[in-house]
Write a structure and sequence with these properties.
Layout: H1 2-15, H2 24-50
């Protein structure tokens, strides 16, 4: 589900990108969100795998 959100979100950013402005801040924000989600999912999977 995350990949659908990412591809849809990235497509939206590119399609609605105003001409003459950098898209870098938008991509940086998107990558930050992805990293936070990944870190959260990894921590949940570690907690779940350690539960007897």
């Amino acid at each position: 589900m995350t990949s659908l959100f990412v591809s849809g979100g990235l497509g939206y950013l590119i399609a609605h990108h105003p001409p003459g402005r950098s898209i870098r801040p938008y991509l940086t924000k998107l990558l930050t969100i992805l990293k936070q989600q990944t870190d959260h999912e990894l921590s949940l999977s570690l907690i779940t795998s350690q539960t007897p």
